[in-house]
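Team,

Forwarding the record for the chain on the shared tracking sheet. I've put the sequence and predicted structure together so nobody has to dig through attachments.
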Amino acid sequence: MKDLKLESLYLREIELPLKAPFVTSFGTSLKRRILVVRITDAEGAVGYGECTAPEEPFYNHETTDTAWSIISDFIAPLLIKNPIGTAADVSDALAAIRGNRMAIGGVESAVWDLEAKKANTPLWRHLGGTREQIDCGVSIGLQISPEVLLEKVTREVESGYQRIKLKIKPGQDIELVRVIRGNFPHIKLSVDANSAYRLDRDVHIFEELDEFGLLMIEQPLAAGDLVDHAKLQKLIKTSICLDESITSLRDAEHALELGSCRIINVKLGRVGGHSEAKAIQSFASENNVPVWCGGMLESGIGRAHNIAMSTLPGFSLPGDVSASARYWAEDIVEPPVTVSSEGRIKSPDGPGIGYNVNEPMVERLTVRRETIPLK
């Protein structure tokens, strides 16, 4: 397909309240300011994407506000200057932009959705996905006590989720894992530090975590750091998984060359969209390194894109793609994303992302908007 003629980019910011606070080493989230990207072409086709940039620059340098500026002031003009024929062309058209991968990913994913709809095929098949259902895990934020954490883990295990991930930070780590592993000796259990630890201070913590048979320790050290992660991986048995440190295929290549990790978390926004995600999973597969899909508290639009990405062959571990109802009283897609009692999500049959966007709800939640012609 080489006939894309983009016509307009609609950018909206919505505010979607979380059902419960989500606590990590970065802080506490009570709601999500989400940028919804809507792309149209000359024939009236519509594609949706979601920019996953958080409200504050603590996960990476991007925020909701910086992403809005980058999309409006730079991405849209570059799409006008460099007309694209296919969704795969978007990355090259925007290559002049340094960083700002989440802003790029929000727009790029919308174009992929549009192209799949024009081809009348599910996005996951259009991307080259092979799985008709994906395995799901959950990420559980820091809790006020080990007892409350155990209650939440028990509920998620009973719901069928195939992997439990616990957020940790210094002072809230070993005892939390000990309680959960003691009650669930056989589940796939991992921890996520979100860069909260230091190699020169905390090696003993990771050596203790080695005793709990964890699937992985995710991003224990500083974002972007590959050298210290390589040093740490040599000191511990548990596999390190990199998240914030992998923003591109080149990062993945360097991480594996240095031995910085044995597993890679691919977040669609963090790597700039589907094209780069496909390249990373392909490279990882060639090197027998498993990848999985991480989450950024997405609405149903971003969640649907994550489902599509997770059907690619290299995504061999359960990802953080869970049911809409875990986070939202009401999602902005219909039907909401649901998970089976076996902890799986069925790949949708409809064209594009396979879920209908509830435009009246989006309109009701919109606090900022901009329409940009692309011709």
